[in-house]
Amino acid sequence: MPQIVTQWWLVDASGLQAGEAVGIEHCDHIDPEPGDAVRFYTGWSRHWDRPEVYLSGEPGPGCELARWLADRDVALTGCDTWSYGPVPPEDPVGRFGSPRS
Questions:
Q1: Residue 62 confidence class, pLDDT cut points 50, 70, 90
Q2: 35 touches 69 (CB < 8 A)
Q3: What pLDDT digit, counting tens, does each position of 1-13 carry?
Q4: Of the residues 15, 23, 84, 88, which has the fewest C-beta atoms closer than 10 A?
Q5: Is 9 left (phi over 0), alpha (psi -120 to 50) or beta?
């Protein structure tokens, strides 16, 4: 992967619990442009020393937020969690918001 030089936005969504989604309301202070990057801080790393908690689930960016970011042509996102989206997922029937078969 080549070097990426772009504007980064940091979204503080700390305090969410496992299974809770980072939503558009957490991004009310940012205005990403096409090609920008957005990093989500959930604070879930505070559980690293307690694997039974850390691995039991996590907060993460939700499907509505993903569409919002895509509409703005954000090039790159990241999150401080072991998966990315919330676990358990927003849609318990579909897999991480994927269409149902």
A1: very high
A2: no
A3: 677 789 999 999 9
A4: 15
A5: beta
